[in-house]
Amino acid sequence: MILRNPQFLLLLMLVPLIIGGWLWRRGRLPAAALVLRVIIVILIVGALTNPIALQGHIDSAGAPLVVVLVDQSDSLTDEGKAALRARAAALAANSSSPVQIITFGATAAAEQSTPPGDQTDIAAALRAARGLIGDGGGRVALLSDGLQTRGDALAEARALAGAGIPVDTEYYQAPARPEFWIATIETPPTLREGEEFTARIVMASTVAANAQLELTVGNERVLAQQVRLAPGENSVPYTGRAGRPGILRMQATLTGQPDTLTRNNVAGATVLVAPMPRILLVEGPNDVNSAPLRSALREAGVMADVAEAASLPAQISALGLYEGIVLIDVPAGVLSLDQMATLREFVRSEGRGLLAIGGRSSFTLGAYKDTPLEETLPVTMVPPPRPERSDTTLLLIIDQSASMGPETGLSKFTMAKEAAIMATESLRAEDRIGVLAFDVSTRWVVDFQPVGTGLSLADIQRRISTLPLGGGTDIYNALQTGLPELARQPGRVRHAVLLTDGRSFTDDRQAYQALIEEARSRNITLSTIAIGTDADIDLLQTLARWGAGRYYFAAEPGDIPRLTLLESEIVRTEPQVEGDFRAEQKAPHPMLRDFAPAQIPGLKGYVATTLKPGADLVLQSPDGDPVLAVWQYGLGRAAAWTPGAEAPWAADWSNWPEYGRFWAQLIRYTLPEPDSGPLQVRVVRDGDSVRIVADSVAPGGRPLDLADTQATIVLPNGAAQLITLRQTAPGRYEQALILPDDGPYAIEVRQQKGSEVRAAQAGYVQRYSDEYLPPADPQTGARLMNDISAITGGNALGGGSLIAPGGGAIRAERLPDTGFWPWLLGLAALLWPLEIAIRRGWVRLRR
Question: Start and end of every VWFA domain (predicted)?
Fold first, then answer.
């Protein structure tokens, strides 16, 4: 028996709904009426499937049945279908054995029926033949082009061989025909509102042809142009901008001649468009100006708020508005441990994005080493080893004014001297050190000398430890004394660290700037450590910025040694690399989609770091150091850009026309995927049908059960349908359905439980079947047909007659097929009045 319309079996899902409704109404309907109603539904569904019993008879000689399988799939074209039907009729007419003809495409059907031709399921046809022949013995003849698109014909052939049923095959080779088609539309899977994107329409052709290409986005035709198709693959790009949030549907159509099949001339694509993201730009203290970046991001579709690093919230709940955070030259010293831990959990636990942009106060230069920031980022704060490293000269300028006392106990002055002693221990023997103390005057505690020669390390440390307290504070006088002397020292790396807790007698900013600029011209850098809240923080920040160094704030005396030691280690390892260079792309990466390395402007410096295992190196310096790196950290992504966004290392970047798009693309890559969230929707292909599956979780990760869940489906033609999803597992809701047309579908699932309402969207493209594509290998069909006959012990007919199961030519008449649908429908019609009579109480059944 064969079902002509098996898809109607899906209607049997009405049976549990009927029973459920009866139970919900607490059995108001008599049980006998319920039973009759269920039987009537089953009979009607059975009639809709159109079951047919295929007939054949054994002649007087007892000849077994021969089943002829005739391919009627669309890949044959009308001419091929007619040729195979004629061939089957000729074989049957010349056969002396009972012959049953079955046509097949997506399903198997009786000879008089026309099966759906959008698939070739040879396995289903062989399975139907095996069921007809049964244990009585018989033979199968298969007429096809062998281009199966569904099922496993070889597995079914092995089953026939096991049953002792040979399969004779006759391969039909379709004549060469001109064909062109749309293979796909390549698009990003997700976009953000206002984001610019590039789609690529990929076409293929077997011949040279002229065609008209049209592209529709939403309901608007955005592209209409003539294309010249060459044999092989062809493509046309389209650049657009994402509109309102939702599912963006795209459909391309190709028309022209010469062409054979038209169903493959249409293809679709869907893109989930999420709302415009909101991020937080966190500025470092050294006069970082994020205004150009913020403005460029807004034009590129990224909304950005700005906050100073010191005001960054220390609670994740306060950052709930933002999908990502960008640190712009932020030193770790201005963030508390709680703030850094919050940034770490913002990425790791909340699945948000973090981008750290470099500068002279970030990464290794910003004391990220051994902090939650280093743990979060894809690079470590250890510069790669260099073949040769310049000797370092370090000048420590220590405030010995009375305010640093008292001398006894854990005072600021005691900690400053301890810090100087630790700095001497961190330097190599060939490095040079000088220690200058100041109040209103200056005093060289240690003249410049190599650490390993001159005074011993113990002598240097003794001189530092016995340094007494003084009087007032004159920072300018100390710099005026120390920096020129530092300029006279040999070596390329010369660095000064100023430690002070007070306000200077001199506050002439122009004089300070002239002094430090002169030092910078001699390649000298200056960092400052402000000790306590009474220090002139504004002045010290400015001095560090002018001196191309770092500014630290030591809130407690115990912080001083750590910060000073950190400065000495930074200077000793030389993490700052300066000089003109152009970043090199290590490997293609989505962060640089549509950006060629030659498009990216040159840079003037970066902070040297080392890539962590498991991180992606996107851009590197000529020395192989990370310039742009990214990795997955917990649930989120973190990225590191080791140059800056503006001067001094990216001074010309804000004039680059692609400045905003570049940064927006980097930031978007770190943000959570737009389709993430507590309600996840996907569409699963399942044979001829699809299943819409929605997974829902409550706060805390528990499955959300017993929620009203509905899906609105927008068809390719713009019409909308509403369906209900039923719960099938904890937190899972789904519904199977058959989509009527090829093309892009937009699906929105809305779910309500109590007062809580949530929604999620998904796109789905029902693509035309492979039936409408030329085979990649022209011999694929012939090989399959030969393999089937070889496995089963059959023969290649090659235009000959059918072979009898017993070995000779056979002949018999065919019997007509029997259809059962009228009987099933008639029985349902007879039971209906009885059901009505029982339901209304006209007939009562006794127990």
Answer: 393-570
